[in-house]
Protein 1
Amino acid sequence: MTKKLSHDEQQPTVMADKNHCLAKLLISANVKNRLEITNTVISPIAGLLVNRGHSQEDALAKATALIAAASPTNELELMLASQMALTSLLVSHTASQAYTAKTHSVLNAVSNQVIKFNRIYLEQINTLQKLQGKSQTQKIIVERVHVEAGGQAAIGVYEGGGVNDKK
């Protein structure tokens, strides 16, 4: 597990260097308590990478890059981005287990987990896009309407309702 940063420690590569990727991420996300966010949001991801054989420096850089890919602009988006980073790591780790599956039932179980993690990841992407105002809503604009002789037309904004609509 990666070591948590304490308030006493000197942090020259992370907090003092404004060009460090972690410092840039925390500044861009308008994070007020950077040390606390680092310990609670970024350290668990880095710890997972350390457990998989990465150095602490490398793990911190990769965790930061995974989170920064979502371009969080506030603390809520930063937390969601960290969950997305963990989900992404879980997908790749679980998918790699499919290669070592000894039986068909184990392969099915692992495949189902990968599918579930991918669904969660897609939901997280949609949620992040909604938070960032990038969600895709459908808007239909009718520019011309031709009403032939004997036809009827109504102009205005209408809300739902159809022939079988219950009231």
Protein 2
Amino acid sequence: MNRAVRYALLVVAAACTGARNDGVAFRPLAIGSPVPSYTARTLAGDSVHIGGAGEPTILNIWATWCTACREEMAALDSLKALYAPHGVRVIAVSVDDGSTERVRRFAESNHLAMTVAHDPSATIEQSYQIVGVPTTFVVGRDGKLVWRHTGNVTGMLPEVRSAIDKALR
């Protein structure tokens, strides 16, 4: 079963039963709670770490096969351009199965300036309790969750900017 079908089934299962398909109760990260520690390899070949005190971070979990994910990439890149001078990182973690090459081609063809990482084993999904992509988190300087949203953020940029401003405080 491909990942798109698994996501659809997980979303339905979570909505209907309040549990993930492994029987463990689904508990999304609570606003104000510390985000889990997570490290991924970027397309540039270095590592990026999320969790603990540090720069405010916009974290987006996405996949190349996801239409809403592809549609919001320009909006996320615009947030990088706007907030990078203030020390905010924008990190997009792809959960595509298989080779990094498909993710690299997508990032290059769309001229993405934000940091792009690839997590082919999708470990971030379990750590961050994700039931679908795209999912976006705003993490404050203190490593605590300020805001989260599942779905395309393009139409809600004022709300995202408000969360980023809060993360900068």
Protein 3
Amino acid sequence: MVNTIHTILVLSFLGVTGLLLAMTTLHRLRIRGVRMTWYSPKLTTIPVWPTLFIGLVIVFLVYVQNTAPLLNSWIFGGYFLGGIFWFVAVALSSTAVITEYGIIPEAGRSNDAVGWGQISDYFEVDEGKRTHFAFLYQDFMGERQRLDLLVPMQNVERFRSLIRSKLDVQIDHPVQRISSRKALEN
């Protein structure tokens, strides 16, 4: 009875996470004119909830196999595979995508995209190991907004040259480099 319930749960979980991964992958593949991508939220972190889930599956697998093997190990393998699907989907949707047409800060939220023509000003803050770029733009309602983007060090020069080619032709004044965090706190 317990194996039957877990079989249904595992198949349901695999179906949902497989669908999530497929939808995330299709959504990401629909983005055209991609020039650069990188993992966005924080460069040194990993998706927390899928990682915790995978860790719990491993802990329960070890516990059940050492105490009383009531469940088949393939059930834990199914939960683990579903956790991997979930992890990959979250990682894909958390990538920053820079296209020919603008910036998508997180691929899973393309409604937050900012076109190059919307940006009225930008500046960068160099903090040693990290570089933040702040973009000032007007949204579709005409309100002024700000987009802060953390760029990995290996992509900074390429990103800088890309935004210069896209934005310096439409912005009249030269951009100043700011080395303190105060500019981001405005």
Protein 4
Amino acid sequence: MAADNLTEVIRIRVTFSLLLASLFLAGCGNQFGSGTQAKPDLPESVSPGWKLGSLMQTPAPPEVPQGATPPVCWKAEYAGPGTAQVFLCRYGVEATAFDAVQRVPAEAQAVKFQVGPWFVLVKWNGAAKTDLTALIRAVQKSLAKK
């Protein structure tokens, strides 16, 4: 009879351990998996007149490395003292976002940077440097919030 109780206890512990492992992995998948991530919380407006026109999930731009696990990317369109497209790609780990910053080639009227697991590429037209700097700082600040 004691052997039956011991077998039952072991079975319960194994089942419970598997359940905990499944919940942990499901949680990681929701945080870093593709397609299930919440929208980034970007500012609707930024002084001196930037307004967020749209924010939608999109495939990564062609110049952005895919890595072992492709990032989940969003594209924000801002209008104001010019136009700006902000591509935000979240990788599973910060090191991959850092690698993306290093590997994406520099180009005119574009800036790239990293905030934690986020790789950000901003492309603009017709904006003064000071106006664009205000928008970039606002994006950086919104991504740095945890």
